[in-house]
Amino acid sequence: MTAEELQQALIDWSVKHSGYEDHRNYIGLSGIADCPRMIFRRYFNSCVIEVREHLRTRYSYEMEAVIKHRLGRMGILGIGKKISAYLGRVQGHVDGEISGKLLEIKTIPLGEHLPTDRIPRKVFYQIQGYMFYGAYKEALILYFARENGSFRTFQVPANREVGMEIDTKIKSILDCIDRHV
SS3 letters for 155-180? Predict the structure, then answer.
């Protein structure tokens, strides 16, 4: 095998096993903060991404697995609930639980990008959706910088009002999906 063949083989394998789902037949709570039209389009259409995005996705999942392994070795990681609502038409994939709290792991490229005083809106809504449909009272969000291995953690309580807002949005989107408008 030549150097070029090795490089291409690694790229091909990484793309094939990146974990990126180009189409989901459900509404994913990880993108619930997006506009309803975008969520509707994502439900019906595949999304093609570039090779570099597949590589980034693969690496992020690998880093997440390393963190979960570390938390498991520490004896504090529990298996999270599978989040499903509306007969599986709405789903969320929880990274785990710690002391009964939902755990969400986010990997980011640089330590300087770690949130300082609050989490981004997109993550806030994702977590609130998980807590609403998964009946969690609190969430722990762990940010991990791929560049240098630094962490930042946040504890977020469930907000029932935001959960109801998300549920109303989802009902509206499902109604549009059912009518295909």
Answer: EEECCHHHHHHHHHHHHHHHHHHHHC
In Å, the largest CA–CA distance within the chain is 58
Question: Do the beta carbons of residue 120 and residue 141 sit within 8 Å?
Answer: no
- 136 closest CA partner among 146, 126, 145: 126
What backbone torsions phi and psi does residue 155 show, to the nearest 5 degrees? -115, 125
Regarding predicted confidence, which is higher, 69 or 48? 69
Q: Please write the tens of the pLDDT for every residue from 121-139.
A: 999 999 999 999 999 999 9
Angle subtended at Cα 152 by Cα 106 and Cα 124, rounded to the nearest 5 degrees: 55
Q: How far apart are CA 165 and CA 100, in angstroms?
A: 24
Is the model's pLDDT at 18 over the cut of 80? no
Q: What are phi and psi of 82, to 5 degrees?
A: -80, 125
Residues 6 or more apart whose Cβ sits within 8 Å of residue 2? none
| pTM of the shown model | 0.88
Q: Let me know how long the chain is.
A: 181
